Amino acid sequence: MWCVNTSHKYLVNADLLNLKGGFVGINIGTDVSNLPSAQDVVAILKANQITHVRLFDSDAHMLTALSNTGIEVMVGVTNEEVLGIGESPSAAAAWINKNVAAYFPSTNISAIAVGSEVLTSIPNAAPVLVPAMNYLHKALVASNLNDQIKVSTPQSMDIIPKPFPPSTATFNATWNSTIFQILQFLRNTNSYYMLNAYPYYGYINSNGIFPIAYALFQPLTSVKQIVDPNTLFQYDSMFDAIVDAAYNSIATLNFSGIPIVVTETGWPWFGGVNEPDATVKNAETFNNNLIQRVLNDSGPPSQPTIPINTYIYELFNEDKRQGPVSERNWGIIFPNGTAVYLLSFSTSDRVSANSSSVFCIARPGADTTTLQNGLNWACGQGQANCSAIQPGQACYFPNTIQSHASYAYNEYYQQMHSVGGTCDFNGTASTTGFDPSYGSCKFTGSSNSSAGDLIPPPPAFGPVTPTPFGDSSRLQVSKIWSLVSAICISLVLPDVNVYKIL
């Protein structure tokens, strides 16, 4: 099925995207000191109802652990691998046989991301980028996998110098030849354009031109509406404007029928003294609003019927990365399985804090020795039913003290709160109205509607000591031009440099 927006000049092949609704996935980086085992990572994905993941490489442990889960997987060809594959069809065939064919279909591999921002991060590889994509696609054809698995390459917004207004955005002419070949490949193979889009950098480098609400998907006042003067499209978020800028850039090279998937976006939750906008509150607001925006199944103003499938950057903080403090604090989950802040990947939100159900869970960031003592007491002297957290049972994974303690604490609390049992455990527990159940692991819920201490679980504000048992222990948008419009009167704003330190 082809969807046409009669008010603009693009034609997008909707068959390439999930017409049942947009999805939000997650990037899984590996520059992590205490990276959980692949099995525990998958348990965390299941616990958070994450249905799509992007790997930056083709790690065998992850691909094996993801088998028979139904989770859609985008595997990555590293930048280091691009050069060899781009010069050798046999190297491409070997890569497909080893990293794709060996796992498919048990592991639901749906796409291959060739490199990461190759044109701007390793420009010397530009001449072999498209050959690498072609060789990989031909290897998929030889394995009869080309209909199930798409090949593309993620690019940053660096290659679109002036993304606002979106209607006049174009690619940097320096890269036109390579980009033309990329788009030709995507069209011929019925694939999609992979875009890395970070409103965080658009905001912090705008020198106050853009209101933070615009970057965080929050409502704008009538005097701060952002409008494209050429199309009169109103942009409620910088995210939508960035995506539309990419759509128009594609159209200016006379290509149509190529949808856009956002392979990276997000917001850091902690930064240095000169990064005041990298906060837990802003990261939580951005990512929750992003999820709700994507899951409403609509596209940007120029493509309203095409969902913007998106991958959040990222699952864990990559504490080994170089650069500013914020570069190491994009994760939504700590390696021990605790959440940095509350986030729901599902359209059916978990029980709200106004619910009559009350649960007792371990506090994120609690001392692991004290948690272990509390876990031992709850399952022993406290007589909680801890069978579900034994090996092979529904709540065993994630195999962390935090997760197991939450289940044991809740079992004790549900049995004993009516006769005076408390949810404290030496300060390592708290009550919440948010249901911590996940997958087949169900937490017993209380009907106590008069609990005075009902609070959501507090966010953890730093790395937590790894568990002593079990297996566990990017972007530039140059010279953004903005237009702030009220009652159809426009004001063209100056150039703004926006970048992501890699």
UniProtKB/TrEMBL annotation:
One of its GO terms (biological process) is defense response. Residues 358-443 form the X8 domain. It comes from Ilex paraguariensis. It is an enzyme of class 3 (hydrolase). InterPro entries: GH, Glyco_hydro_17, Glyco_hydro_17_plant, X8. Its EC number is 3.2.1.39. Its main location: membrane. GO terms for molecular function: glucan endo-1,3-beta-D-glucosidase activity. SMART domains: X8. This is glucan endo-1,3-beta-D-glucosidase. It comes from the Eukaryota. The lineage of its organism: Eukaryota, Viridiplantae, Streptophyta, Embryophyta, Tracheophyta. The keyword Methyltransferase does not apply. The keyword Glycoprotein applies. It catalyses: Hydrolysis of (1->3)-beta-D-glucosidic linkages in (1->3)-beta-D-glucans. GO terms for cellular component: plasma membrane; plasmodesma; side of membrane. It is a lipid-anchor; GPI-anchor. Pfam families: Glyco_hydro_17 (PF00332), X8 (PF07983).
